[in-house]
Amino acid sequence: MATIGLIGSGNIGSTVARLAVAAGHDVVLSNSRGPETLTDLVDELGPRARAATAAEAAAAGDIVVVTVPLKAYRQVPVEPLRGKVVIDTNNYYPERDGHVAELDDESTTTSELLQAHLPQSRVVKAFNNIYVSHLGSLQRPAGHPERSVLAIAGDDEAAKQTVAGFLDSIGYDAYDVGPLSEGWRYQRDTAAYVQPYAVPGTGYPTWPGRRVTPEMLEDRLDAAVRYRDA
Ligand SMILES: NC(=O)c1ccc[n+]([C@@H]2O[C@H](COP(=O)([O-])OP(=O)(O)OC[C@H]3O[C@@H](n4cnc5c(N)ncnc54)[C@H](OP(=O)(O)O)[C@@H]3O)[C@@H](O)[C@H]2O)c1
């Protein structure tokens, strides 16, 4: 069992925290407003959860999930994340985040941007292409016939193994897309983004069945096109 630090405790942060606590991990939650604003969530999660500042959550986590609006990525604390495995859930929405020139010209990708901000950390891209309610409902135990796969990308093989182990513990298999530079294959508005995981009643088109297999995900990743070619 590990301690999972959460930088950001909104839709995705709170959902990852729920999954982690259900799997027996400890979680340290943080947001921009301060730990006192997370009391309700901590109470809901129980004794495995506590709230702290972002720097404290970063320091406490064996694995730290950065799940803030992308525009806030430069505020993610650098020093306490040195050497750590950092999961990046972020997506780039210019209307929300403002324009980032190197994302607009596709000379980098969102997770490479976070990796550049955290040069001593080991960033793995995960959770960005699944809608929050699907993430919180498609988890299944290992070997279950409806278990789904989630994409991961990163430049550090050991970090990807660590994240795959974490995903396994919370109810998902992992599919290794490759280095961070390949993370664009499941970025916003690609074929592998959100839609493959859509479940009935959520307003998204659905796959037959509820399970995303490695083959389905691979097809979607292969179909990805860069924004400039779309
Ligand atoms: N929603 C989805 O279904 C989904 C799915 C996959 C990926 N994503 C991506 O994941 C990221 C998070 O999405 P979300 O929907 O969870 O967002 P959200 O509900 O708006 O939550 C964002 C969280 O980040 C915190 N935060 C903002 N600035 C911060 C800072 N400087 N330091 C620490 N915490 C900070 C916020 O705290 P305060 O409330 O105190 O400001 C809040 O807890 C986004 O990049 C999003 O595009 C979202």
UniProtKB/TrEMBL annotation:
Signal peptide: none annotated. Keywords: Oxidoreductase. InterPro entries: NAD(P)-bd_dom_sf (IPR036291), P5C_Rdtase_cat_N (IPR028939), STEAP_metalloreductase (IPR051267). One of its GO terms (molecular function) is oxidoreductase activity. It comes from the Bacteria. Residues 3-92 form the Pyrroline-5-carboxylate reductase catalytic N-terminal domain. This is Pyrroline-5-carboxylate reductase catalytic N-terminal domain-containing protein.
